[in-house]
């Protein structure tokens, strides 16, 4: 593999973040963290990471979804793979009654549940990064 | 309260329409009229009134029929009949059709104003009730969503750090310490499952699964269920033996919830079984029904407790090996099976074991029609 991949976590639960950060850093990823959606979006714009790990239930509600929507509208950010990590799958169903449990927030996303087994987390992160890499080579 | 109520008057006599309109003018009403039943029904659709006066005796479609059609369009609209021949029988008939009150002709302006007022009060009551019911429903759903987040977030954070710790300490930790860590993980996982179960019981309207019913293969449900029971069984050295008496017709239902029901029964069987015993799952077809039984050779259920085991929050008291649980598993099972037009029963002998039997109607394909 080439240079170190940079990941951004947007999640308002510092304890959870600490848990996954050490897993990811242990696997030699560079990890940045934003603890609220606003800081998170700013960080995305100023220094787009290779992959975003996004929490859904933040602040007063499902503020993570607002971030996902903004990403989808942005032609550059849209290319960043997003791994959604959420507390509960059913919650998504509450938020979108009548819609499939796994709504497509962004073109390239994946949804895992909290808490996430270290091996599974690394496998998903790696798969998303590789898929993004493959897309890049295809288009260039 | 509504800003302005809408009142519709359906009567074939122009003089009645005119005078009624005049009586209500100046009050806070929007008024519409129709000169016969057919027009009236159409006006109901366009105008969406709160209150409708209907003359019982009209040429064309009768007042009673108009009432029926109005209630079909919107059962919350309040209707009052105007009857020229003030016989009790016609008024009673109209009330049976769902009319709120009746007004005998001739009537004074005050009588008309009063009955309009009463009719609209009734309408407001109906609207308030609907709003309250809707609010209650929303509250129930939101409550579930909020509670789930508030409870699950801290647990998720704890579990995540445990996962990480186990990985980081893998070189230094002793086997005994690892066992303790694993036990913590497993207890937290149980707690998370418990929250899920409660939430399902509170917030999920089981009837909605009917929308996605399709033919379901019973052996596939059983093999999926066994897969998720097995890890629990292995811990107690219990063997899960599934036997299927072919051929088996499919059932019409939702594979996910059927599997859930069977997993619940299987996990219960494991929970109340002795170390090293067996849990038997059998499926056969019998008289147009698929019969699935789950048997254990465990502690059993006392006869006097059997009638209550499917109640919410019921938990067997006799079991020595009670290993936590919400007391909702069987209640949820029953709800799932009944939603599939099936039944679930239990037989048990104290000290010998229990057998739970699910009966589901077989799926009959209607391609021949």
How would you characterize the overall build of this protein?
- The complex is a heterodimer of chains A (140) and B (369).
- With 140 residues, chain A is α/β, with parallel strands linked by helices.
- Helices cover 45% and strands 18% of the residues of chain A.
- Chain A has helices at 14-26, 37-46, 63-73, 89-95, 118-139; strands at residues 6-10, 30-34, 51-55, 82-86, 109-113.
- Chain A has a 5-stranded parallel beta sheet.
- Chain B is an alpha/beta fold.
- Chain B has 3 domains: 5-107, 3-Layer(aba) Sandwich (Rossmann fold); 137-204; 209-361, 2-Layer Sandwich (Heat Shock Protein 90).
- Helices cover 48% and strands 20% of the residues of chain B.
- Chain A binds chain B through residues 13, 15-16, 18-20, 22-23, 26, 57, 87-88, 90-91, 94-95, 97, 114-118, and chain B through 141-142, 144-145, 148-149, 152-161, 163-164, 167-168, 196, 199-200, 203.
């Amino acid at each position: 593999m080439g240079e170190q991949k940079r990941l951004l976590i947007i999640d308002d639960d510092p304890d959870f973040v600490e848990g996954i950060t050490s897993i990811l850093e242990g696997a030699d990823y560079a990890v940045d963290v934003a603890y609220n959606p606003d800081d998170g979006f700013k960080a995305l714009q100023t220094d787009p990471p290779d992959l975003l790990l996004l929490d859904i239930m933040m602040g007063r509600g499902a503020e993570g979804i607002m971030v996902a929507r903004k990403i989808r509208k942005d032609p550059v950010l849209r290319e960043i793979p997003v791994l959604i990590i959420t507390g509960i799958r059913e919650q998504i169903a509450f938020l979108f009654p009548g819609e499939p449990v796994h709504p497509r927030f962004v073109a390239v996303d994946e949804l895992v549940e909290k808490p996430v087994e270290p091996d599974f987390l690394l496998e998903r992160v790696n798969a998303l990064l590789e898929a993004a890499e493959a897309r890049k080579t295809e288009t260039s | 309260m509504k800003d302005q109520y809408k009142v519709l008057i359906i009567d074939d006599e122009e003089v009645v329409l005119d005078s009624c309109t005049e009586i209500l003018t100046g009050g806070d009403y929007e008024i519409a009229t129709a000169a016969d039943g057919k027009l009236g029904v159409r006006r109901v659709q366009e105008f969406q009134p709160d209150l409708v006066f209907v003359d019982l005796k009209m040429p064309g479609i009768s007042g009673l029929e108009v009432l029926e059609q109005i209630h079909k369009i919107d059962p919350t609209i309040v209707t009052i009949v105007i009857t020229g021949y003030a016989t009790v029988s016609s008024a009673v008939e109209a009330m049976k059709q769902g009319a709120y009150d009746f007004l005998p002709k001739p009537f004074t302006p005050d009588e008309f104003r009063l009955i309009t007022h009463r009719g609209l009060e009734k309408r407001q009551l109906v609207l308030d009730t609907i709003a309250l019911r809707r609010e209650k429903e929303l509250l129930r759903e939101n409550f579930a969503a909020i509670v789930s987040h508030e409870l699950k977030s801290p647990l998720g954070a704890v579990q995540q750090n445990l996962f990480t710790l186990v990985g980081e300490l893998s070189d230094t930790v002793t086997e005994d310490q690892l066992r303790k860590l694993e036990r913590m993980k497993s207890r937290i996982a149980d707690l998370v499952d418990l929250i899920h179960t409660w939430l399902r019981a509170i917030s999920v309207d089981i009837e909605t699964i009917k929308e996605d019913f399709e033919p379901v293969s019973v052996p596939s449900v059983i093999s999926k269920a066994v897969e998720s029971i097995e890890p629990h069984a292995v811990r107690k050295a219990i063997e899960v033996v599934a036997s299927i008496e072919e051929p088996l017709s499919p059932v019409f239902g939702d594979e996910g919830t059927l599997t859930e029901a069977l997993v619940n029964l299987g996990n219960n069987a494991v929970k109340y079984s002795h170390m090293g015993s067996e849990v038997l799952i059998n499926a056969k077809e019998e008289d147009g029904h698929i019969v699935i039984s789950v048997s254990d050779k465990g502690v059993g259920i006392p006869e006097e407790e059997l009638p209550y085991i499917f109640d919410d929050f019921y938990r067997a008291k006799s079991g020595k090996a009670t290993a936590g649980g919400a007391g909702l598993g069987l209640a949820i099972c029953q709800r799932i099976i009944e939603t599939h037009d099936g039944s679930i029963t239990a037989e048990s002998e104290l000290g010998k074991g229990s057998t739970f039997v699910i009966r589901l109607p077989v799926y009959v394909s209607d391609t021949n029609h």
